[in-house]
Write a structure and sequence with these properties.
This protein has eleven helices and twelve strands. The protein is of the alpha/beta class and 303 residues long. The chain binds NADP nicotinamide-adenine-dinucleotide phosphate.
Length: 303
Amino acid sequence: MKQVLAGYKLTVLGGDLRNVYLIEELAEQGAFIKALGLPVSCQNNIVTLSSLEEAVRDADAVILPMPGVNEQGKLFAPLTDENYYLTREIKDSLKPGVLFIVGFANNYLKQLAAALEVELIEIAEMDHVAIYNSIPSAEGAIQMAMEMVPITIHGSKAFILGFGRTGQTLARMLSGIGAEVYVVARKPKDLARIYEQRYIPVNFKELEEKLKVADIVFNTVPSLVLPADLIKKLKKDAVIIDLASNPGGVDFEAAKSYGIQAVLAPGLPGKVAPKTAGKLLAKVLPDLILKYRNARDWRERNE
Ligand code: NAP
């Protein structure tokens, strides 16, 4: 493997199992890695630490978990019992010009990054990241569906709400297994593309009428698109799998009251295919780090 990250010091803070594999990949690309809140063992160019200050000291880039921190600054670190809070106290340990990389940054993290004077990059909404991520997400959603319904996916009527990066991957995979795929979108150009790709296009306005035939509903829209009155139209044995970011797009209380199985399924890549998800992340991070470093060097030379 090319040692594109040789000479770089990276810190990986918390996250799920995908970050364990990410560390292996980044180390193979030549980076020196400090890890915190993850079950990795120390090797040649990987060390584990339990102090945040030590972990971030002198790093060129700090890689946070995809969900980052909560509104109290608590690091998303489900693989450790320790609680880590990212605060201004790390400021003195940071190298000037350090880059922070996260999936989604909440207000806390944005304000902290400003106070620490670090560059913060959010990657989850970058097209290439979201498209790579859609692969394990769609597979994971289909795996959940297989476990929840007493029928095969083949021949089932599967509805997908939203035709973005995740919806498109899901549609292609479901169709490949032989499902009858209905895709619900609001833009005429999306409805035209859905038709062109031989799925069944459904306008949101028609959903009330069409939904009654659904066996499985996958939601990818991060807004309330399945309120009580629509859920009521579903068959009693239909299931809903909501992939959209918390709180999802489904009235879960209503689903429960109608006896319809509905689950919110966050973080599927790290759960169902952490190795692939880690490798996919390792495909995109080096470019971002190198690009940022080059841009920073250029700025410094020209200031
Ligand atoms: P995306 O490419 O932005 O697609 C979102 C889709 O939702 C688009 O088709 C968009 O249509 C539609 N949409 C948004 N707001 C809408 C509204 N109010 N009414 C109707 N349609 C609306 O996003 P993505 O990358 O596919 O991700 C979708 C969601 O899944 C996000 O919340 C993401 O965080 C989440 N996600 C979860 C997992 C997991 O493991 N559970 C994995 C990956 C992604 P328009 O173009 O018309 O706006």
